[in-house]
């Protein structure tokens, strides 16, 4: 006996199962955001955001801290793309944080990378009118490479144009003539190789002689310096000898002054006595010459005067 199947119950069971699977998928996909509070921030990109999609991750120094909520053109400035970012509350978003696009691996999937943020910087807070705070943007690596390559190509193009202007027909003829002259000069130098070698040898000898003369001059300067030192020492000794002589002369002068003050009067009296003695001796000699007998008889008495 066959069992009857209730297709309505089976259909309800399949529908409930699919709903459960869908809810599970959604729950697992949003499991990272479950129970978390997010703050809204805005950033403006001036480059293409190709490859960036909604719910793309937002990373701060490689750590995923949020997602991209909205991508739209800036109404006030169509050259900019506005990105609304939902970032976990508590993430240290400072005024010097910069947002830029990055590519994840080789897949080409883009995400937003936050860089910067020093300790001294102030936290980025909402504006007065309640608008979300704006994170300043920076150029991505691809944008910097594109700018660098464009600049390089421009410089190469300019260099190529300058070379084309430089190597015109006239300059090419002049360059050819210069190369011809250089070839002729090299042949002449080769033909005079021996003379050049002799000149180089003489130059080497002259350099050696100059070095030797320089060494001897250094020695002579040293000897002159030592002689000057010796003469300076001699002058110092002569100066000291002059000082001693002056001191001796001053000492002798004081001694002579004392000598003339004490001995000169005595010497003067002695000379006076000697002069008197000399006069007396002269008188005796004169009398002896007139009357030699005075030595035997003695001196004659004077004749008596009148009335004696």
Q: How is the topology of this model organized?
A:
Blueprint: H1 7-29, E1 38-45, E2 57-60, E3 63-73, E4 81-88, E5 97-104, E6 109-116, E7 134-137, H2 141-166, H3 169-191, H4 193-290, H5 294-297
Parallel strand pairs: 1-7, 2-6, 5-7
Antiparallel strand pairs: 1-4, 2-3, 3-4, 5-6
Features:
single chain, 308 residues, alpha/beta, 7-stranded mixed beta barrel, 5 helices, 56% helix
Task: Provide a compact summary of the structure.
The protein is an alpha/beta fold.
**Low-confidence segments, ≥5 residues, pLDDT <50?**
none
What's the overall average pLDDT, rounded? 75
| Proportion of helical residues | 55-70%
Count of helices? 5
Q: Could you give a short account of the major beta sheet?
A: 7 strands, mixed, barrel
Overall radius of gyration: 64 Å
- What is the number of strand segments? 7
Strand order of the largest sheet: 1-4-3-2-6-5-7
| Terminus-to-terminus distance | 234 Å
Strand content: 15-25%
Please state the overall shape, judged from the principal axes of the Cα atoms.
elongated
Structural class: alpha/beta
Encode the helix/strand succession as letters: HEEEEEEEHHHH
Overview of the structural elements:
With 308 residues, this protein is an alpha/beta fold. Among the domains are: 35-139; 167-251. Helix content is 56%, strand content 17%. The chain contains five helices and seven strands, in the order H-E-E-E-E-E-E-E-H-H-H-H. It has helices at residues 7-29, 141-166, 169-191, 193-290, 294-297; strands at residues 38-45, 57-60, 63-73, 81-88, 97-104, 109-116, 134-137. Strands 1-4-3-2-6-5-7 form a seven-stranded mixed barrel. A hairpin with a 4-residue loop joins strand 5 (97-104) and strand 6 (109-116). It starts with 6 loop residues before the first helix and ends in an 11-residue tail after the last helix. The relative contact order is 0.05. The model has no long low-confidence stretch (mean pLDDT 75).
């Amino acid at each position: 006996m066959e069992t009857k199947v209730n297709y309505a119950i089976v259909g309800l069971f399949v529908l409930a199962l699919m709903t459960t699977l869908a809810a599970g998928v959604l729950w697992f996909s949003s499991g990272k955001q479950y129970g978390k509070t997010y703050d809204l921030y805005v950033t403006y990109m001036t480059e293409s955001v190709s490859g960036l999609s909604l719910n793309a991750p937002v990373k701060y120094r490689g750590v995923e801290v949020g997602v991209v909520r909205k991508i739209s053109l800036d109404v006030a400035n169509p050259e900019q793309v506005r990105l609304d970012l939902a970032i976990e509350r508590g993430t240290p978003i400072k005024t010097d944080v910069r947002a830029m696009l990055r590519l994840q691996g080789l897949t080409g999937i883009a995400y937003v990378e936050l860089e910067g943020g020093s300790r001294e910087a102030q936290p980025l807070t909402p504006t007065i009118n309640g608008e979300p705070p704006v994170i300043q943007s920076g150029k991505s690596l691809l944008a910097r490479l594109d700018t660098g390559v464009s600049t390089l190509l421009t410089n190469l193009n300019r260099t190529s144009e300058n070379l084309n202007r430089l190597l015109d027909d006239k300059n090419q003829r002049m360059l050819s003539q210069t190369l011809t002259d250089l070839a002729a000069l090299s042949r002449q130098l080769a033909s005079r190789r021996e003379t050049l070698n002799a000149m180089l040898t003489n130059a080497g000898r002259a350099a050696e002689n100059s070095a030797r003369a320089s060494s001897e001059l250094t020695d002579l300067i040293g000897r002159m310096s030592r002689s000057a030192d010796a003469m300076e020492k001699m002058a110092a000794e002569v100066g000291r000898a002059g000082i001693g002589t002056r001191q001796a002369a001053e000492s002798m002068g004081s001694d002579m002054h004392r000598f003339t003050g004490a001995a000169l009067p005595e010497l003067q009296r002695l000379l006076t006595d000697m002069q008197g003695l000399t006069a007396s001796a002269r008188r005796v000699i004169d009398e002896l010459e007139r009357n030699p007998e005075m030595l035997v008889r003695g001196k004659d008495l004077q004749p008596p005067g009148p009335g004696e």
